Amino acid sequence: MIKAYAVLEAGGKLEPFEYDPGPLADHDVEIDVDYCGICHSDLSMINNEWGVTKYPFVPGHEVAGRISAVGKHVSKFKVGERVGLGWHSAYCNECQTCMEGDHNLCATAEETIVGRHGGFADKVRAQAASVVALPENLKSESAGPLFCGGITVYNPLVQYDIKPTAKVAVIGIGGLGHMALKFLNAWGCEVTAFTSSESKVEQALELGAHKTLSSTDPDALKKAAYSFDLIISTVNVGLNWNAYIRTLKTKGRLHFVGALLEPVKLNIISLMDAQRSISASPVGSPAVIAQMLDFADRHNISAEVEEFEMKNVNEAVDRLENGSPRFRVVLKK
Fold first, then answer.
1. Cα 232 to Cα 216: distance, rounded to the nearest angstrom
2. Beta-ladder partners of 3
3. Do residue 135 and residue 171 come from a single domain?
4. Does residue 285 belong to any structural domain of this protein?
5. Strand bridging mode 131-133 / 82-85
6. How far is CA 164 from the centre of its chain?
7. What is the CATH number of the domain that holds 269?
8. Distance between CA atoms of 150 and 328, rounded to whole angstroms?
């Protein structure tokens, strides 16, 4: 039996829950969960905001732990090896997308917390292909958030071949944005943080920004015209996107990684006249996740986390939902 914490209805509190996972599938592994981050996607699923949650529901898709069992066709992992598990828990491994290495775009990929139980538990299972080994020096307590928030902001650097000479700005210095600043700084980019208050300026500079720009000052945005090769938006609220687009250089890109649910209103002329573009991306493939982990290990990059004991899971969820954590909340078994 796997011991976990589950919600029984939309918006409910997490409570102790046990379930029998059945025999371990031939291509799967079982992971002893040491740490599991809490993401806003977990909150959305708890509250059934996307209409796909099935109850009882065990959240958790930022897992760092150790292999406790392997299926009979699994050769890439050994029992005791430190690993991580993120948003995806299985792929078809047969479609053209998977064969090209873009497993994260597989049309039939399975999500770790959609239709199955996640990592708010002592153990979790997943297809071996979706699990990635942790580098030796990367600490487990801060590794989990890299498998969702970290890879979400790292992935566009690879997908769009961002040069170390690029000038890049980040909107939203929170759970995603603080990792974006760290990665971009180590990548070699000139990094600017859009800030909404003076109190966040020093914080952004400490995290890796070279400059800050007030997002509430229309004049500052106008003066920044044609400044950035790339803007990464990590927020899930609507902004004056046309003002940000005008700060892009010729052929610059505004890239969304925050799950913005409302329609985006754009002035097409401001895109057309400078051949600017708009794009978005999800988490990365296992190959890109592995690359990210090596990069993070080499440059000593980790998520800033606040730890809670697993038994205090409801307190931890409340901290994320109603508090201002710095910057990710992680459960410790």
1. 17
2. 18
3. no
4. no
5. antiparallel
6. 22
7. 3.40.50.720
8. 11
Q: Is 125 in the same domain as 162?
A: no
Is residue 275 within 8 A of residue 254, CB to CB? The reply is no
70, part of any domain: yes
- CB atoms under 10 Å from CB of 200, counted, come to 18
Helix locations, the chain, DSSP H: 40-46, 96-99, 140-143, 149-159, 177-187, 201-207, 218-223, 241-245, 268-272, 286-298, 313-322
Largest CA distance in the chain: 63
Indicate whether 89 and 209 sit together in one domain.
Answer: no
Q: What does the pLDDT profile of the chain (333 residues) look like in tens digits?
A: 999 999 999 999 999 999 999 999 999 999 999 999 999 999 999 999 999 999 999 999 999 999 999 999 999 999 999 999 999 999 999 999 999 999 999 999 999 999 999 999 999 999 999 999 999 999 999 999 999 999 999 999 999 999 999 999 999 999 999 999 999 999 999 999 998 877 789 999 999 999 999 988 889 999 999 999 999 999 988 899 999 999 999 999 999 999 888 889 899 999 999 999 999 999 999 999 999 999 999 999 999 999 999 999 999 999 999 988 989 999 999
Contact 260, 64 (CB under 8 A): no
Domain contains 289: no
| Range(s) of the domain holding residue 246 | 151-280
